Structure prediction request, 273 residues.
Amino acid sequence: MPEQSVTSGVRDETAIAEIAQRLDRAWEERFTIPPLTESEGIADAATAYRIQTHWTELRLARGERIIGRKIGLTSKAVQEQMGVNEPDYGTLWASRYFPAVGGRAEAPFEVFLQPRVEGEMAFLIGETLDWPDITPQQVLAATEALAAAMEIVDSRIERWRIKLADTIADNASYGGLTIGAWSRALRSSDLRTIGMVMSHNGRPAVFGAGAAALGHPALAVAWLANKLRSFGIPLRAGDIVISGALAATIPAQRGDLFVLEMYGQPPISLRFV
Prediction:
């Protein structure tokens, strides 16, 4: 789907384009850069979203596809740590979607810089959400199915030294994702109380529940739909939305195996090869 511009008068388009190109080179050539909040003095979310949008437009021009959106900073503790009072969002690029065949996915470790893995809940949007004040109930009514998902978060910012504007500009630290089997039955479950266990190399490592995502995963998706709409970008039918981490992230190394088990769903695994 086409990306639309986010308007702000803080920086001229030449500067925005240069920073987006720098992030794109870091992604493609696999090197880190200093925090943009330090090297460029970017402090506001509006400018950071303009950079993120321009970067996505660069990739779309080269044949990239958008398959949906990701939500970050859904934990109140992380928001307080970063001094913000709302989540952020990024774009899911198809080139970093790793399909789970028979519940098993593999990701080439060499394409990442400093990857971490987190367990999430994925929504498959069945009806375009494009009206004012979208509610969690309307999100659930518009959802076709849900699934367990593992997101690979990765940062082009050296040593993860990120502030809010850094991670927004860096496409909300998107690295990649894999998704389990879609379930229509999950739509009628209490998503707040659905539990999750993620194992790392055979040992249970983190535990979480749906309530970790802004209190309710559908509330996080409603926030996203309203935020996108404020920029003139609807959440469209067919979009995949991952609604935020349900537990702490785990650093990944080559050869690592992660297994995500979510109540009522078949397990999915992700190996870095």
